[in-house]
Amino acid sequence: xxxxxxxxxxxxxxxxxxxxxxxxxxxxxxxxxxxxxxxxxxxxxxxxxxxxxxxxxxxxxxxxxxxxxxxxxxxxxxxxxxxxxxxxxxxxxxxxxxxxxxxxxxxxxxxxxxxxxxxxxxxxxxxxxxxxxxxxxxxxxxxxxxxxxxxxxxxxxxxxxxxxxxxxxxxxxxxxxxxxxxxxxxxxxxxxxxxxxxxxxxxxxxxxxxxxxxxxxxxxxxxxxxxxxxxxxxxxxxxxxxxxxxxxxxxxxxxxxxxxxxxxxxxxxxxxxxxxxxxxxxxxxxxxxxxxxxxxxxxxxxxxxxxxxxxxxxxxxxxxxxxxxxxxxxxxxxxxxxxxxxxxxxxxxxxxxxxxxxxxxxxxxxxxxxxxxxxxxxxxxxxxxxxxxxxxxxxxxxxxxxxxxxxxxxxxxxxxxxxxxxxxxxxxxxxxxxxxxxxxxxxxxxxxxxxxxxxxxxxxxxxxxxxxxxxxxxxxxxxxxxxxxxxxxxxxxxxxxxxxxxxxxxxxxxxxxxxxxxxxxxxxxxxxxxxxx
Length: 533
What we know:
- The structure is a single chain.
- The chain is α+β, with helices and mostly antiparallel strands.
- It has four domains: 7-194, no CATH class; 217-307, Beta-Lactamase; 318-382, Helix Hairpins; 390-530, Heat Shock Protein 90, CATH 3.30.565.10.
- Helix content is 57%, strand content 16%.
- The protein has 14 helices and twelve strands.
- The strands form three sheets. Strands 2-1-5-4-3 form a five-stranded antiparallel beta sheet.
- A hairpin with a 5-residue loop joins strand 1 and strand 2.
- The longest helix has 56 residues, at 158-213.
């Protein structure tokens, strides 16, 4: 035999059977009322009054039972009470309608079916035996005149009583066996279905957790190219407020060109503009369904930092090669330059006071000194001295440098703003001051009259981030990749060594320096210095 139903399942079954009893009693009430009204005009008989009274009691019993179920009283005892109540109701109605001639003997069958639903196969069989026994006792009592039915039914032969008892017993037992079997099958099927639903729910929860926790961005769209799903990583990478906001938007508005990939291209890089600036994405587009008829699946990763790191490494390699070349050239120029200057000084001593000769020698000395300074700059770039690190308050160092440069003529035409947090780190103060002077003077010159230069310092993870921003934004995109190369300059009279030297100093401190520029967002030089050596 199958086990008893689970409490929540039993409660549902009790509720539905209570509703079914209410409907059945209501239909019985309608039937009795119709029979009474269709009779010739006369007072309702005693049997009719008893029938209406029984129906009223059944309504009362159903109401009380429903309130008990609502209060949480739903266990095996409640099921037994309901089955016993159904047997009593059936017996009373059968007795009131003539027992042997009663049209309501089928109520015993319903009680047996209810027992198989609420209890189990054994409970259904017990209910069938109890129904058969009750019906048999009623037949015997009415035939023996121990009880008198309001509608008669006492003229029963012994053969008819035996036939009725046997046929009802057989019908009830067969119904009990069949209903018990069906109930067991239903319970087993319901159990399997509940297990599958639980597995499906777990699988859905696991899928949602995977989509939520995966570091790669994921976007799905329908066949028309409209967004249907965006995971958390995609929202973070693209700078979206919430996935629900973009649902239904064209996917091309988020990833321009993503759906235009050739069929044979499995992976490509795509540059997109977000609220936090340009992002380089490596994405894969896969069709959903047959040939993408159900939409597209787009998986992508943010390669911006990786590409920046690769560019930093390539730049460092180029600078190292150029630095070696510059050192060799400077060394080769330095010796003949010293000989030339020495010769020029001898000419000054041996000159006979000729004004023209003195003037030419003076030009020669002045230009040789300028060339010597240029060679020294080359050597500093090629072989920068190692930083002598000491713990300093970086915020105070930056504030001191900014205050010193406020007297610069270039700074008088711009508004300088600072937001500096006190951070104590190990740096070479003199070298870092050289970097600040170079970047601030460039920012003053780029901001032009009425512009803004903003200097901010804040901690970010294990880095101290110093941002020097100006409102000019005049560096062309084609120059951004070359701006730290030596001898590259777009300014009239510039040597192209200032930013290269700044880059070398920051790298020697174990940090990074990056630049971004656009007319809409201005130009920003971001210096990252490690907070722990």
